[in-house]
Each structure stands twice: as structure tokens, then as C-alpha cells.
Specification:
14% strand; globular; alpha/beta; binds ligand F0G
Length: 352
């Protein structure tokens, strides 16, 4: 990814590029969401990055710069995906990684990733916001490089997703929808869109629509909250990039809105069974958000309220792979196979 957009990233000949061939993820046309919305809808499937989420884009830059600066240990707080990416890129760089996580609130696949990539894992009795506070305090003591999105290199890397979308569509979309947790990604996308717009690579600036889980919606409510949601990736009550999210929404004419856990899980199942794309719950907040915009309970500031112009393009970022968190949909869907004896008659009966 760094090699694709090198001139727009903070790297020099002195930067040892630590990469796992992240980025260049598919922008998948969604025929059914297009039919429902009357627009051309695409899904930027970030779950197809090397560690299964968009975090790899920021991490390749953050770890490369940390190594350039001589760091031998990196640290982050995480709801699971940042820690997976940090651990993988640190392993690739041959440096140490420590991750501070909220105990009991990390999806099983993500926790396994932190361990298997060789990170030191500390689970605190607290939430993500507590973990990030402790990481800031540890960072101030020195000797470690913080690779959360408060590290500006992370945002720089993540903005490349906007570049890829413009490169592929030949233009920015009219509307971009994504889930919001710590708010680094909406900040990064908006930066990427503005950068390519300023460089005449696109004539459109999309309206940025961010969706928070209704139980973890501090930006929507305008104050920090104690977060609760099944979408553990975005279970955040006091986002670090709050101002960046507000700027993206204000400057683009978009909005921050909410979707309930039930809407998130329904959207996750709908996307898998209608389009063949399995994303984790937090990622399905994008799809739930679009469906909400198309319904009667959309927010008053919704850009869909006035109708979309013909030929409008909408891009939804689906941020992480569904296999990271198999427990949430199983619990929700109550999935269980039909058992049968091992003979043709029994199996045909079961198939009926
Ligand atoms: N989707 C997924 C799958 C995530 O893991 C995250 C954030 C987001 C959306 C929200 O992105 O924070 O930039 O607004 N995960 C972080 C983590 C907090 O620690 O993995 P954001």
C-alpha cells in the first residue's frame, strides 16, 4: 500500500517499509442495495486485508515509522482489530508489541490473533476508553511507541482507502457511509477525499455519514457515554478523534447517526445471505445505516431526505471480516445444523 501511494505518505528513503501487502481491497458492486436505494452502491470490503480489517492500512505506516525512529516496542489499546494489526506488523518488523484490551469484550478471533502474532496481552477491568488512557500514560513514560490512531501516521495510512475508491470509480462517490468508534477512520477518509479533490483527481466531495451503535453513541449525543453494544469493535464512549469526525460531517454536509444492535445484526445477516459478504457486526453498521436512511425513521439531516440525483454513487466501508467474531451472529441467529443418519433417505428427509 505504501508503494502504491508513496508520494502522499510520510515515508522517505530512510523508512524501512514494513508491509504485508495490505490495501487494494475490492470495491464490490451491490446489486441488491443498489435496487433498494436507486443509487449505485459499492462495498469497500476491508475485511480482505492481511489481518482481516482496515487497521492494516494505518499500521503499515505506523510500524514502518516506529522502526525508522528506532522503537523496539509498540503499544496500543484496542477493541480487537488494532491489536491484531499491531501484533502482526510488529512480528513482521521483529519488534515487541503490547496490547491493552477491555477484559471479556474482545471477539474471539481477534484475541487469538494478538496471541498468535506474539503480542503481550493485558486485559483490564474497564472499557476501551480506560485502556487508551493507560496507553497514553505509558507512552508518556517513554520507551514505547503508541500505535493507536492518536499516532498521526495511522490516519495517514488509512486515508489511502479514499484514494483507491477514487482511482477505481474515476470519481469520488456522492455519499460515503462508515461505522464510527474511535472516529479515526471517518477522519482519515475525509482527509483522503479532500486531498485527491485538491489534486484534481476528483470533482466531487462525498457527504460523510457515520453510524455509531445506539448504546455507544457519544458523538451523536454530544457527550461521553458508558458504552454498551454487541458490536464490540465500536464499543467506545469517548472517541479520540471526536473533532475529526465532527469536522468531516460538518465540512461535507453529512451527519452522525445511530443504529441499534438489532438493526446491526439484521444487516449483518442480510448482507451475508443476499450479497455473499460476511462482515463483523461493527462493519454491518454501515449497511444498517444505509437501510435506515432509506426508511421513514431517518434523521432530519439525512441527505437521502431530499431524494438522490439520478446516477448517484454510494460507497459503504465494511471494515472487518465476519470470521473475526463468529459468536455474535451464532447467538443472534441460533444457527444449528439439521442432524441426520448417514444414509440417503435420512439426508433427503432432512433437506426437505
Ligand atoms: N469497524 C471495525 C471493525 C473496527 O475495529 C473499528 C475500530 C471501527 C469500525 C471504528 O473505526 O475507531 O476509526 O472509528 N476499532 C478500533 C480497534 C477501536 O481497537 O480495533 P474508528
Amino acid at each position: 500500500m505504501i508503494s502504491r501511494y508513496r508520494s502522499r505518505l510520510p515515508v522517505t528513503d530512510a523508512t524501512p517499509v514494513i508491509s504485508l501487502n495490505e490495501g487494494s481491497t475490492p470495491l464490490i458492486h451491490s446489486p441488491r442495495l443498489s435496487a433498494l436505494s436507486g443509487a449505485e452502491v459499492y462495498l469497500k470490503f476491508e475485511g480482505l486485508n492481511p489481518t482481516g480489517s482496515f487497521k492494516d492500512r494505518g499500521m503499515t505506516v505506523a510500524i514502518s515509522k516506529a522502526v525508522e525512529d528506532g522503537a523496539d516496542t509498540v503499544i496500543c489499546a484496542s477493541t480487537g482489530n488494532t491489536s491484531a494489526a499491531a501484533a502482526a506488523y510488529a512480528a513482521r518488523a521483529g519488534i515487541r508489541c503490547a496490547v491493552i484490551l477491555p477484559a471479556g469484550k474482545i471477539a474471539s478471533g481477534k484475541l487469538v490473533q494478538a496471541f498468535i502474532y506474539g503480542a503481550k496481552v493485558v486485559a483490564i477491568r474497564g472499557n476501551f476508553d480506560d485502556a487508551l488512557r493507560i496507553v497514553r500514560e505509558l507512552g508518556a513514560l517513554g520507551g514505547v511507541a503508541i500505535v493507536n490512531s492518536i499516532n498521526p501516521h495511522r490516519i495517514e495510512g488509512q486515508k489511502t482507502a479514499s484514494f483507491e475508491i477514487i482511482d477505481e470509480l474515476g470519481e469520488a462517490p456522492d455519499i460515503h457511509i462508515l461505522p464510527v468508534g474511535n472516529a479515526g477512520n471517518i477522519t482519515a477518509y475525509w482527509r483522503g477525499y479532500r486531498e485527491f479533490h485538491a489534486a484534481d483527481r476528483s470533482s466531487v466531495l462525498p457527504k460523510m455519514l457515520g453510524f455509531q451503535a445506539s448504546g455507544a453513541a457519544p458523538i451523536f449525543h454530544g457527550h461521553p457515554v458508558e458504552p454498551h453494544t454487541i458490536a464490540t469493535a465500536i464499543r467506545i464512549g469517548n472517541p479520540a478523534s471526536w473533532e475529526g469526525a465532527n469536522a468531516a460531517v460538518k465540512e461535507s454536509g453529512g451527519c452522525i447517526d445511530t443504529v441499534t444492535d438489532a438493526q446491526i445484526l439484521d444487516a449483518q445477516a442480510w448482507l451475508a445471505s443476499h450479497e455473499g459478504i460476511f462482515v463483523e457486526p461493527a462493519s454491518a453498521a454501515s449497511v444498517a445505516g444505509l437501510l435506515r436512511c432509506l426508511g421513514s425513521d431517518r434523521c432530519p439531516r439525512c441527505p437521502f431526505a431530499g431524494g438522490l440525483r439520478a446516477g448517484s454513487k454510494i460507497v459503504l466501508t465494511v471494515t472487518g471480516h465476519g470470521l473475526k467474531d463468529p459468536d455474535a451472529p451464532v447467538k443472534h441467529g441460533g444457527f444449528a445444523p439439521v442432524e441426520a443418519d448417514a444414509d440417503l433417505t435420512a439426508v433427503r428427509r432432512a433437506l426437505d
